[in-house]
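REQUEST FORM: STRUCTURE PREDICTION
Request ID: SP-0412
Submitted by: Lab K.M.
Chain count: 1
Length (residues): 337
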Amino acid sequence: MKTRAAYMKSPWQFEIREVELSDTPPAGWIRLRVDACGICGTDLTAAAENTADWAAFGHEIAGVVEAVGPEVGTLEPGQSVALESGSACGRCDLCRDGRNDLCVGRVPGFWGQAAMGFSDTMLAPACCAVPYDGLPPAVACLAEPAGVGFDMVRVADIRMGQRVCVVGPGLIALVALALAIRRGASEALCIGHSHSKARLELAKGLGADVLAVDGPLDERDDLRRRFDHVLMAAPTQFIVPALALLDYGGTMTYIGIGTGDGTIRFDANDFHYRKLQLRASFASPALYFPAVLRLLKAGAIPGEELISHTFKLAEIERAMLTCRDDKATALKVVVTP
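STATUS: Completed
RESULT:
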């Protein structure tokens, strides 16, 4: 069978191709009708500099099972599912020791297929399909990035009564902010640039205080040593200045893939004497989909409010350029067939 699929090549080249898919999924795989796929910041990085050859893309996916191959198990045609972007194997030593968040075995994913999330139809391993109901597909496809925000809060280990600052009001940070407030943070502040007014307003609606800061964070005396946790979802160069925001014994949790060399330098003596911690959140393999889908359905993660733009598949170039160029209003951009 044939399907439309979006392909990209850096720098910023896009086209819609007609590609051939197997009529019958192989053993352990499903054929999925794609209903919605979100654009991730890593898609933008790849479009800018990391895709030398044409490749299909899109990994924040929700759709409906159209067909199942042999040995699939409980999935059936007609089920709505969200796809994990990478799944734990369940067999390596780390998985068997209860640390599937550190899985190194990994099972085959849908990466490198002829059609991925920005397509009408695609093939995917059944093990990465998580059923859901009661959600619009555009909201369900947020399970992948919302799972990253969920992991950030889990890694930070935020507790009731603690003071939390979120730096960089993107979708992942806003999800983490909503969950930190739900966990009982006594103070929650979201910091962004002045051009992030719409995002800061959304953070305010979640129950946080907001602050637009365009200068160095370590020069703000009103923020110095004020927080137990800093959730850093901004580029790597903001990590070191934001250490000044941490109180004695504070923890910074970082999520992001820096451009350039990603190197930071900081005063290790100050870090030591203030008993600070710097933690990395990296939700790979993708985890927590059932919990995140329940939180989206309950409204604890305000999925519909996080979606700023929707485009059709034929408009993939416009969708990607909107993410790149419209920093003021583009939060989560979702593409539907």
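NOTES: The domain at 2-142+301-336 is CATH 3.90.180.10 (Quinone Oxidoreductase; Chain A, domain 1).
Reviewed by: T.R.
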